[in-house]
Structure formats: C-alpha cells, structure tokens
C-alpha cells in the first residue's frame, strides 16, 4: 500500500503537484514525469484500488484508469496484481541477463 516511504521516492515529489492535474494534451506531458519512477507501479495501484478520479497517477490518466477498471472488473486488489507482475518481470529480466552472461559468444572465422 502507498505510504510516506514510497512518496519520498517518487519522481513527482520534485515538481509542482498541479503538473499532474491537467487536461487534454498536457496529460501526455504529465505522463512523461512518471517514466522511470521507482514507485510508478505502486502509485498506479493506489490510484486504481482507491478509485482516484483525477490526475495522472502511475503514468495513467483518469480516463485510462476508468477504461482499465471497466475492462478488468475481476481485479479486487490492484496492488497485489501489479506488484506481483512487476516482480515476475524483473525476475525474468534478471534471469535473461544472467543467461546471456553465462553463454559465451562464439566467434566464427
């Protein structure tokens, strides 16, 4: 769940909060703020679980979140779903990197 520790790591802590509560094309710029944020997944989960109606959270606009909630009515806990998916992604990525490091590249002459 979202907490002060996560908020302290968020990229948006360094900007004017109003930059995330914009309309129209400005929302695309606001979404860029979320790129590379270390707590993006948790932020998005908080917005989805809490049904936050306004602003860009975790890289998604309110319209995008509403559409996702309509499509995935079966999800009862976005935090668990998104953080476990993120963990699996990172484990797979780490495993692939380790496999590449272990497999020597053979040169063909």
Automatic annotation (TrEMBL):
Q: How is the cofactor bound?
A: Binds 1 [4Fe-4S] cluster per subunit. Following nitrosylation of the [4Fe-4S] cluster binds 1 [4Fe-8(NO)] cluster per subunit.
Per the record's keyword annotation, is 4Fe-4S included, yes or no? yes
Any one Gene Ontology molecular-function term assigned to this protein's record:
protein-disulfide reductase [NAD(P)H] activity
Tell me where in this chain the 4Fe-4S Wbl-type domain is found. Answer: 11-67
Q: Where in the cell is it found?
A: Cytoplasm
Kindly list the positions annotated as binding [4Fe-4S] cluster.
Answer: 12, 34, 37, 43
Q: Which GO terms describe its biological process?
A: cell redox homeostasis; negative regulation of DNA-templated transcription
What the entry says about post-translational processing? Answer: The Fe-S cluster can be nitrosylated by nitric oxide (NO).
What segments bear the compositional bias annotation Basic and acidic residues?
88-103
**Main localisation, per the record?**
cytoplasm
Gene Ontology CC annotation, any one: cytoplasm
Q: Which cofactor does it need?
A: [4Fe-4S] cluster
Alphabetically sorted, this entry's keywords are: 4Fe-4S, Cytoplasm, Disulfide bond, DNA-binding, Iron, Iron-sulfur, Metal-binding, Transcription, Transcription regulation
Region listing for Disordered, in residue ranges: 88-109
> Entry's PROSITE patterns?
4FE4S_WBL (PS51674)
Tell me the function of this protein: Acts as a transcriptional regulator. Probably redox-responsive. The apo- but not holo-form probably binds DNA.
User: What family name appears in the similarity comment?
Assistant: Belongs to the WhiB family.
Protein's name in the database: Transcriptional regulator WhiB
